[in-house]
Amino acid sequence: MTSSQLSGKHAIAIRGAFLDLVNDPFHAPETECVRYLPDGLLVVEDGIIRAFGAYQALQETYGQWPTVEYGDRLILPGLIDCHIHYPQTPVIASYGAQLMEWLDTYTFPAEGKFHDAEYARAIADFFLDELLRNGTTTALVLTTIFPESVTAFFEAAEQRNLRMIAGQMLMSRYAPDFLIDDPHTAAAQTREQIQTWHNKGRLRYAITPRFAITSTPEELMLVGKLKAEFPDVYVHTHLSENAQEIELTAELFPECKDYLQVYEQFGLVGDRSIFAHCIHLSESELERMAAAGGAIAFCPTSNLFLGSGLFPLERAKTDIRVGLATDVGGGSSFSMFYTMTEAYKIAQLQGYSLSAFRALYLATLGAAETLDLQDTIGNFEVGKEADFIVLDRHATPLLALRNAKPLPQTLAEVSEQLFSLMVLGDDRLIHATHIAGQRVGI
Ligand SMILES: [Zn+2]
């Protein structure tokens, strides 16, 4: 039995081994942050978590509910990708260029196709299914300058009942003619889309200038006004990814003392602003970002693939919210597990180790906090939306050998197994993905 009607509501219970984070392990001992229930029960009603705890404690109340048993598999909250470009899906894994050349050679031609609504919808459908196959249930997503690409994405996400944030890409200079928008038209389109899509069901809107180079000051000023008019929409852009990009930004905005000030001067840095990369920020920029409540999307596979640099995770996490992100197609994988492993390597190269629990936090509760969705998703707290995934610890012969032991019982055992899943795992790990309690076909 997978679901049933109970008192007229859609009701389901899930029994198995549950692992989630309840606090930030960068700021508290892991024993106070990690929750592990080797035999737990998650009770879901109309997509919302109604009860969660040890099976023994809950069975009397919920024992009669239709229950799915996941045995010795491991159940995690749905993974959250804090920065990803859906139109770049067809050019993932393109050879041999750093950021600016990569944009010109591969990305811009790919994005140029998205004026075609049918094509945009086909890629949006593929993209969302690929996310779900990889266990990613929420993402902050970039589109293109074409409104068709935004509508296609939101409609595809709405149809799947996904919690997604996206917005129209804004670009009014330093791009091929076919990717240049008119700032006034683009701002008007953004305004209309905010009114159509922001807070519609599980969807939210992000004002999305690509980066400082491709938006004229006028365009940034116009969308800064929109942010003031709709303060609860998000701002989503790139910041300080690549040396050449930083240099050109300084030339284009000579009145600004640094890159962050470009966004600051237009009112675009606040607690619903998410900046991808932030690899080369000065201490002053980091301090101002922290004071303004801005958040960072850390994109390890992209940073390595494009040779952009090593993100200073440890420094950023002292006072800034950081979430993990794939940055496909500059990033080289849809898998958040692969992304966690690359984050681990970036930390290693800077002389510290990223624990499995910290990595998982960056892809679940920490990512939810980065996206200001911590009251809605990110762990198994009662009242949150029931997006979760089920991992097969024996998904490949190598994983079966590595995790031959039974389900872990102690936190140390969980840490050890989780780390091996993270390093060896990919989409094959994902046995099931549940959206609002319901299992989706992947
Ligand atoms: Zn990006």
Question: What's the helix and strand layout?
Answer:
Elements: E1 4-6, E2 9-21, H1 30-33, E3 34-45, E4 48-54, H2 55-62, E5 67-77, E6 79-85, H3 99-111, H4 117-133, E7 136-142, H5 147-159, E8 163-167, E9 169-170, H6 183-197, E10 203-209, H7 217-229, E11 234-239, H8 243-252, H9 259-264, E12 273-277, H10 283-292, E13 295-298, H11 300-305, H12 313-316, E14 321-324, H13 336-349, H14 356-363, H15 365-370, E15 388-391, H16 397-402, H17 411-424, E16 430-435, E17 438-440
Parallel strand pairs: 2-5, 6-7, 7-8, 8-10, 9-10, 10-11, 11-12, 12-13, 13-14
Antiparallel strand pairs: 1-2, 2-3, 3-4, 5-15, 15-16, 16-17
The structure holds zinc ion (ZN).
Zinc ion (ZN) binds next to strand 6.
